Structure formats: structure tokens, C-alpha cells
Amino acid sequence: MKKIILFIIIVVALLPLIGNKLIQSTLDENIKMITSNGIEVKHTQIDSNYLSTSVHYEFMVKDSDKFMIYLNQYADKQIPSYINMMLLGMHVGLDLSYSNILFNNSVEVDIYPLSLAKKTAIDLEKEDKEFYEYITNFLKIKGLLYHINYNVSSENFDGYIKDIDEEYTFKDGTNTQVIMNNMLFTGSGSLTHPNKMDSTLKRIVIKSTDDAGKLDLLVEDVKSSSIFKTKTTYSTQVSVANLDLITEAPEDAKVYLKDLSLAVSSDTQSDKAHFSSHSSFKELIFDMSTSDIELFGFNYSVSLKDIDKKSFEELSRLLPKVQNDSSKELQDKISKLLLDIITKGFTIDLKDMSLDKISKDSKKAVDAFSLKALLNVKQDPKLVNKIKVRTSQIIKNTNFDAYIKISKDFFKMMNKEVPVSMIAGGFAKELKNDYIFDIKFKDSKLNVNGKAIK
To answer: What is the rounded distance in angstroms from the CA atom of residue 454 to the CA atom of residue 440?
Structure first.
């Protein structure tokens, strides 16, 4: 028994000397991956003791084109090409620390830019040397830093972005202040392309003052949650509790937004692609020097369904190239894919676009409007040939239904110059305090509230 206990003690004591092979192997794989995609390792420093290891890397973006190709593999949209020059020559620091004990697979990571991109730095130094030196010093002291706690085994992580509280006065006298507090995040999957990520941000403040006036921006309590299954199958939700924007001179204006919510999703896991988008806010106020408008209870929900997945994914790949390629060959490919999508049919479902109430110039709020609509383009393999003869043939394959409700008070408010009787006496249907428009388009025939329109 004593020999067994002694053996166990010796093995445990030797574990830190053996080192954490899982973490070391993962690091080696990731370094190899980034260096094969346009990143150069400029400096490496390793400090190791009995229980732990610390590693400091300095990277440089040597080939921004190659690095952009790598990043675009995981982006749902093509990253703009001008970002290349913003990355080329940039230096980034990376500090890692982890335990040498074999079964502790947690890594602490700090990532921070050490310098601006080469061209950006040269241009900024020529334009404003003092500001260039300020930014250089800001980066030198790790002013912009991501801290991540990552478990190599479970691939779960959490972390934060270092708080920012900076103020600078430019040579023209403009004073600018930037504050960011409590940016936290959690997630799972690879750090370069996570499959899930949640984040919260307590506050962002931007203030700018010059001789002409001032601008104040406040954003509070931002939350986001994202799930990424593939490049084209994902969902993202974002909420903002408060957004205030105040400007003074040359024109005074105040904008207040409360409880903004945004959500988008894309699903391409079946033969057909489906997309949805939702947005809403509780209150939006525009307070201008000459008038003010208050909007209450806005909601928007739309989905795009039954799109041919193969054509859509190829179109998604080609569209970002348009900004750099105006060739007829590319335009023809895009036109063909659009026709393929139309030929195979799709549906747009506007489930809700509504505003509960509206007030103008501090008067009593009145009921506003609501809209629902459904557009369906039927599948027709012969449609391509029909369109070649007459473009309007696509209308014969389209059905459209819409139901619009507009309050009489809202209509009067927004259309003072148009007599309400012109609408009421036309196609509108009166229902208590609202005008109703029940629109149907089928078999190339349009009618509103049962009345045919020719």
C-alpha cells in the first residue's frame, strides 16, 4: 500500500513537468493555421515554471489579401475590400497563460493591437502628428484589449473588453470623449469561428464639442445572442434599452429611443432557404428645433421563404464581388441566378408592420396604422423563356394579399393637404375610426375591398 501511495505521489509531482500536451498541441495547430493565412509571427517569448507557462506572441498582418480570404470563410457577408489596407502591416500582441498540470485545460488569453496598419499610421502621422502619438501610446499601454478565458477541452469561453475612458482635444479645438463600460461575453466553439456567443454592454458614451456646437451619444444596456450553425444558417438577437443622441448647432436636435429589439435568422439546412427579420421599439422621440414627433409601439416582422438554396448560396458568394468586378461575365451570372430563384418560386410574408400611436408637436397621441401582406411567386420552369418574350409575364405568376388599417386621426395628421373624403369616397372602407384597405392581386387581377381596379 505504501508503495502504491508513493507511486501516486511521484506521478502527480511529475505531471507539471510533463506539461499540458492538449493545450500545447492546440496552440501549435492554431499558430500553424494563422501563419498559413497571411499572419507572420514576429516575436515569441516563453516563460515556464513548475506549475504554469506564459507565452507572449507578436503577430503582423503580412498578407492582408490571404487573411481576408480566411476571414470570409466565416463571415455571412463578404468583408469590404478596403479593410485590407486597414489590416496590412498591423501588429497584434497575444499573451497566453495556462497550467502545466495535465488535466487543467483552461487558458487565459489577452489580445490587443500594438500598432495601426502601416498605411493608416503613415497617413495619420502626416495629417496630425500629435494625435498619431496619442493613438500610438494608447495602443502601447494595451488601451484596447480583449481578455478571454478559454477551456480547450470543452471549447467554452468567457471574457471582457477592457473599459475605455479617453478624452482628447484635436489641434482644431474639437474635444472628444469616449467611454465604454462593462463589455462582457460568453460563448462556445472555436475562438476564430464560435458556434454560440452572448454579450452584454453596460454603456457607451461619445461626446464631441467644438466652436460650432456639440454632439452627445449615449447607448445603455446592450445585449446580444447569436447561434452559428453554418455560414448561412444562423440567428442573432440584439436589444438596446436606451439610445440618446443630442446635437446643438448648427441645428438643435434630440433623439431618444427606448427598448429597441432586433432579430435576424437564416436557415439553409434543407433544400429551400428561409430568412426572417424582426424589429421593434417601445418609444422613439424626435425633438427638433421646429417640431417634435413621438412614436410608440413599433413592430416589424417579415420572412422570406422557399428560396432555392443552391441558387441563393451561389448568389451570396458572387454579389460581394460586384464592388470590385464590373465585368459582363459576372453580371450575366448574377442575372441568371436571380432568374433561377424567381423561376423556382418564393414567398415574402410581412406578418406585421405596425405603429401603435403617434404624437406630433406634443399633442395627444393618436392611433397609427398596421399592415400585413403576403406575396407569392409561383414555381414555373417555363418562366425564363416567357420573360425573354415579355418581362411582364412574371406578374402572371405572382399573387399578392395585403390588409392595411390606418386610423383616421393618423391620416389627417400626415396628410393635411389631402381631403380625407377623397380617400373615403374611393376604395377605402370605413370601420369605426379606421380606414381599411383589403388588397388582393391574383391571376393578374387587382381589387381593393372587393372593387376591381383595371
So the answer is: 13
Q: How far apart are CA 432 and CA 434, in angstroms?
A: 6
Count structural domains, the chain: 3
Please indicate, yes or no, whether residues 127 and 2 belong to a single structural domain of this protein: yes
Query: What are 59's three cell numbers?
Result: 503577430
Q: Which residues pair with 216 in a beta bridge?
A: 207, 246
Q: Which residue among 123, 154, 185 closes a domain?
A: 154
DSSP string for 150-174? EETTT-EEEEEEPPEEEEEE-TTS-
Instruction: Answer whether residue 289 is part of any domain.
Output: no
187, 119: one domain: no
Return d(Cα 56, Cα 248) in angstroms, integer: 47
pTM of this prediction?
Answer: 0.84
Query: How far apart, in Å, are the Cα atoms of 331 and each of 18, 104, 312, 338, 388?
Result: 59, 54, 15, 11, 17
* Residues contacting 89, CB < 8 A, separation 6+: 60, 61, 115, 117, 118, 119, 121
Residues 6 or more apart from 129 whose CB is under 8 A from it?
none
The number of beta carbons lying within 10 Å of the beta carbon of residue 68 is 21
* Residue 19 placed within a domain: yes
pLDDT 10s digits, 13-62: 334 434 455 567 777 777 888 888 888 888 889 887 767 888 899 988 88
Give the three-class secondary structure for 403. strand
Residue 407, in any domain of the structure: yes
